[in-house]
Amino acid sequence: MRAHRPVRGAHDGNGGRVGAVMAWRKSTESGHAAQEAGARLARRTTASLAGLLAEREMTRKDLADRMGVSPGRVSQILSGDENLTLRSLAAVAESLDARVEITFLDAAPRPAEGPAGESPARHTPQSSPALPYARSPHR
């Protein structure tokens, strides 16, 4: 969580500063949202990797051997709890003769933001894979 600078200005009447409290609350909320988004991204990434391993009929030990790491390290990667770096994702991809693509897209509307009467599923971006992993046609 990043620190904020004190805000000069309005007081809440109890000796505290209104702006400072609001700044703290906003930074805390955005930090929490970022952590949740990171967790979702990690789960999607590890599901994609697990799907690719299953498609290739490879075990965790097979991947560990190709990467030159222990099976325990592969289990850490696949747990979804690991804060993976781009380099570690690149190492996995290189060992599988695969590639990693990271694309920033506009966020899909949240269910409450969709048109009335339509289910949230109709507002999923078309570029989202239907399966837990995506295969690129450009291999």
TrEMBL record:
Signal peptide: none annotated. It comes from the Bacteria. PROSITE patterns: HTH_CROC1. Residues 107-139 are annotated as: Disordered. Transmembrane segments: none annotated. Residues 107-119 have a biased composition (Low complexity). This is HTH cro/C1-type domain-containing protein. It comes from Streptomyces luteosporeus.
